[in-house]
């Protein structure tokens, strides 16, 4: 708690998109060192015994983020939307991929996953997310001027940018037409 009585939280604490992205589950293999009391916390029944291979189950990604670096050891299984094969396809032709179908919170969830993955895999995923976003942003801005276009193949962040762009485009067009109308009024013979 801060001296003024305010609770300091992360910047994205109240971000509904971030909350929805972290609701997704992620497949994990928990080691033998995982305490049995942990499993009810992720909505699972504790296994009778964990073999050397570990115990594979799904856990909420927000829980895994909270546990990162704690006593519970687990190996993450990268979700399909972020596998190397999918990433290579995205980097080749990012404009053609339906991100909404792949993962509706593609960038937000991807950032969470990249922070959880150790080593070069996490870095490669983060770099892919950045490059895909940069390449797709041009497509988004080009579609903004088409008022009939529906952002069906975009993830949540892209849709937000698209809708804000469309709103701005509409306001700019209305402003431009009002200026034209005022200029025509001034030039009309009745005002001379």
From TrEMBL:
Query: Where in or outside the cell is it found?
Result: Nucleus
Position of the signal peptide: none
The UniProt entry's GO biological process terms, in alphabetical order, are:
mitotic DNA replication initiation
Q: Which domain of life is it from?
A: Eukaryota
Its main localization is: nucleus
The family database entries (Gene3D superfamilies) matched by this protein are listed as: 1.20.58.2050
InterPro entries registered for this protein in UniProt: GINS_bundle-like_dom_sf (IPR036224), GINS_Psf3 (IPR010492), GINS_Psf3_sf (IPR038437)
Q: Which UniProt keywords apply?
A: DNA replication, Nucleus
GO CC annotation, single: GINS complex
What does this chain do?
Answer: The GINS complex plays an essential role in the initiation of DNA replication.
Q: Identify its protein family.
A: Belongs to the GINS3/PSF3 family.
Which PANTHER family does this one have? Answer: DNA REPLICATION COMPLEX GINS PROTEIN PSF3 (PTHR22768:SF0)
Q: How does it assemble?
A: Component of the GINS complex.
Full protein name? DNA replication complex GINS protein PSF3
Report the source organism: Panagrellus redivivus
Organism lineage reads as: Eukaryota, Metazoa, Ecdysozoa, Nematoda, Chromadorea
